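Worked example
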Amino acid sequence: MNLQPVTIEAIPLGRPLPWRLYDRNGYILFARGEQVKSLEQLESLLGDGLLRDVDAPLQTQETGDWAEFMNNANIGIFPPNGIKPQPGEPVQIRLVNRNQQTYYSTRLIGYIKNVSILVTTPMVVGNPLIMADDEPVEARMVTGNNIYVFQTTIQSMHVTPTHYMHLEHPSEVRVQKLRKSPWAKTNIGVMVTDELGANEIATIINLSPDGAHLRAPRSLGEQGKLLKLSFPANMEELGATLDLNAKIKHVYAPKVTPDSAVTMLEYGVAFSSVSPADALWLKALVYRHIAEGYMA
């Protein structure tokens, strides 16, 4: 992969991207086929760098990473063939016409094929989110090894016996396969201990079942150094503290974060000797963040 800077002027707006757009650490900012809506989106990412792989072949048709959310002819309508979503599974919805990218958390109650999908009403600070009948929404959920996304509308809102709503049964479902070791954007505080026993507070800004991307105000060591990471894992009413062994694989150039004048140091670490229980927690955390719309 040969990542080279791209100027804002060279990035098409409102049209499918012909190539992936990366940040300076190699994380995908926009996938092939995804559309950049505005200059403001790009300007907010300048601090992380805007790069593309100049050796990768151009995508000349309106296909690519996000076109892998295939249409009805390829995977069928909801639920996709071979997939049986269970009541209680997380569902994220986005209000399409409100000019925002926020995803709200709901739970699947059930579905009547070709009629409607029942989900709980999103709650914001303990109150149901105000929405209207016929309002268009985008829904997404992680089931198996895939992320499923579809456009629909709210058929009706209900308040008894609980707050729930009917979504129109979608005519098209798109799918993207998760990577073998998917990465999710996070903001998790972590205690880092080096080989000499010195402690430092850092932040996990990207997490996968195999490693993490750390941001810290002071040095955590050089490439090849061993670390111990300790951070909380919380899922619904369950919680645990993960204590993991890690090795520094990458040391990135210092950067000034947009919300602070403090220069932060960034590291890529790989986990080692992860217990089965901790591995399960890591996967659960990653998939939860992906389901919430925070895919790295």
